[in-house]
Design brief:
This protein is mainly alpha-helical and 107 residues long. The chain has six helices and two strands, in the order ααααββαα.
């Protein structure tokens, strides 16, 4: 568990393939069945895992889908707390208003 955490925290794209292969070998040679199964999952998603270490040049950060997941959750919470919207245009306007960070709060 700690090795995988350190892998995601410290590995760069240039050495991601080598480090990932080391983890796969370590898990495969383990006596724990769950780790052996985990190594199969890592093999199946190897290229995707390696690509996750690419950085966006303009912000020098790894790309992830956290922002989209947050937006989806916010929309679901809005929909749930309103007990449903019957007017699509009103719902759309409310979502856009809620998710727009540029609009100042009224006092």
């Amino acid at each position: 568990k700690d090795i995988v955490h350190l892998f995601y925290k410290n590995t760069e794209y240039a050495n991601a393939k080598e480090d990932l292969e080391d983890i796969i070998i370590l898990c495969r040679t383990s006596n724990v069945k769950g780790l052996q199964d985990f190594s199969n999952t890592l093999c199946a998603w190897k290229q995707e895992i390696i690509n996750s270490f690419l950085k966006i040049p303009s912000i020098n950060r790894k790309m992830n889908n956290a922002l989209i997941e947050n937006r989806n959750k916010s929309i679901k919470l809005l929909k749930h707390s309103s007990n449903g919207y019957t007017n699509w245009n009103r719902f759309r306007a409310r979502v856009l208003y809620t998710l727009n960070d540029d609009i100042p709060m009224r006092s």
